[in-house]
């Protein structure tokens, strides 16, 4: 099974990682690829460079960043392979420990049955 893990940092936006934090995360990512459960991962640039696009009743609303609700800001994502939701949770706990906190939403990716 594949899962999309949407990471929301526990630190305020702009409070970037230290060089030591980056080295630790790079090592963790390399090990995760080698273990075969990490498919892809990327971090996001600050929300000041982003935009939100909404469609409501046929009208689009575009809001440029930065966005005020920092607890809702996506800091990055990972696409992982896990045997179950419980396994995905355990892998995510490992990531959050290395990341130094925050929150990750885990969503299973739809995969059609093998018979199709």
Question: Quick summary of this structure?
Answer:
The protein has helices at residues 19-35, 85-99; strands spanning 2-8, 38-43, 51-56, 59-64, 76-81, 103-108. It has 116 residues and is α+β, with helices and mostly antiparallel strands.
Write the layout of secondary structure elements.
Elements lengths: L1 E7 L10 H17 L2 E6 L7 E6 L2 E6 L11 E6 L3 H15 L3 E6 L8
Antiparallel strand pairs: 1-5, 1-6, 2-5, 3-4
Structure description:
The protein has 116 residues and is of the alpha+beta class. It has a single domain (2-108), classed as Dimeric alpha+beta barrel (Alpha-Beta Plaits, 2-Layer Sandwich), CATH 3.30.70.1060. 28% of the residues lie in helices and 32% in strands. The strands form two sheets. A four-stranded antiparallel β-sheet has the order 2-5-1-6. A hairpin with a 2-residue loop joins strand 3 and strand 4. The longest helix has 17 residues, at 19-35. The chain is flat. The chain starts with a strand and ends in an 8-residue tail after the last strand.
């Amino acid at each position: 099974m594949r899962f999309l893990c949407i990471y929301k940092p526990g630190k305020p936006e702009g409070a970037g990682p230290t060089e030591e934090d980056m080295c630790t995360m790079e090592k963790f990512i390399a090990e995760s690829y080698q273990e075969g459960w990490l498919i892809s991962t990327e971090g996001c640039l600050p929300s000041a460079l982003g935009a939100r696009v909404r469609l409501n009743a046929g009208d689009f609303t575009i809001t440029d960043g930065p966005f005020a609700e920092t607890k809702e800001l996506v800091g990055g994502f990972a696409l992982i392979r896990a045997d179950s939701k419980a396994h995905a949770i355990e892998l995510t706990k490992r990531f959050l420990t290395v990341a130094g906190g925050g929150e990750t939403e885990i969503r299973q990716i739809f995969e059609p049955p093998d018979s199709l």
